[in-house]
Design goal:
The protein is α/β, with parallel strands linked by helices and 251 residues long. The chain has helices at 32-42, 63-72, 86-95, 104-108, 111-120, 153-162, 184-193, 207-215, 226-229, 235-244; strands at 5-13, 16-21, 24-30, 47-51, 77-80, 99-102, 125-134, 137-142, 147-152, 167-172, 198-201, 221-224.
């Protein structure tokens, strides 16, 4: 059985790591380069770096910061925020990213997924899906969760898989920052439906939530931010707990 991955997420705004609740009320969580090194040393399996206002501010992800982080870590590193062209991907991969994450640009122009997968390989392309449940239906949101669409989440997940995405980063906006647990139902639905890995994001509050998302949620990886940034759950402790729960993780 493949090992389950633990992935800290660095949400970046103006060069600093931030964290909020339900995508708003952001507070400072530290220097991204320092945090990246700590997580790499602690045994995180991968890192995700999202420039959360890049799309909104119509600017590109900070390639220099990507380079600085890549120099300090030795684990796979995904970068997202404001990526909309093959050239953007080239710059970030050359700056040291292992994978890139696209969201708003893919919803606007789904064909870009095919282009990027063909140019760089599916293993480099992560499609991030920010989802919110509205009256019992799951809809995709774009621009850092600010803009709702009429695209249904499950349908979109299948389409991005068919277009060549190598992985999906599924964030529940309803659960984000609440520490009440991951959205296991929709995570399991999409994980079961697709042939590519699904990273669950949004709602981690304790170690049991990780166990639940790997079992009930059938996730391949679990991503969290504030519980790691504010040292509520050390990654080595989490991994030992998961191993005790008979969930395969890399120690």
């Amino acid at each position: 059985m493949l090992t389950k991955r633990i992935i800290p997420c660095l949400d970046i705004k103006d060069g600093r790591t931030v964290k909020g609740v339900n995508f708003v009320q952001l507070r400072d969580a530290g220097d991204p380069v320092e945090l990246a090194k700590i997580y790499s040393d602690e045994g995180a399996d991968e890192l995700v770096f999202l420039d959360i206002t890049a799309t909104v501010d119509k600017r590109k992800t900070l390639a220099e910061l990507v380079t600085n982080i890549a120099k300090t870590i030795n684990i796979p590193f995904t970068v997202g925020g404001g990526i909309s062209t093959v050239e953007d991907v080239k710059v970030l991969l050359n700056s040291g990213a292992d994978k890139i994450s696209i969201n708003s640009a893919a919803v606007k122009n789904p064909g870009i997924i095919n282009e990027m997968a063909m140019e760089f390989g599916s293993q480099c392309i992560v499609v991030a899906i920010d989802t919110r449940n509205v009256d019992g239906i799951d809809f995709v949101h774009t621009h850092g969760g600010r803009i709702p669409t009429l695209v249904r989440t499950q349908q979109w997940a299948k389409e991005v898989c068919d277009r060549g995405a190598g992985e999906i980063l599924l964030t529940s906006m309803d659960h984000d920052g609440t520490k009440a647990g991951f959205a296991n139902e929709i995570t399991a639905e999409i994980s079961t439906m697709l042939s590519i890995p699904v990273i669950a994001s949004g709602g981690a509050g304790n170690m049991e939530h990780f166990k639940d998302v790997f079992t009930f949620g059938r996730a391949d990886a679990a991503l969290a931010a504030s519980i790691f940034h504010f040292k509520e759950i050390p990654i080595p402790n989490l991994k030992r707990y998961l191993r005790e729960m008979e969930i395969p993780v890399r120690l």
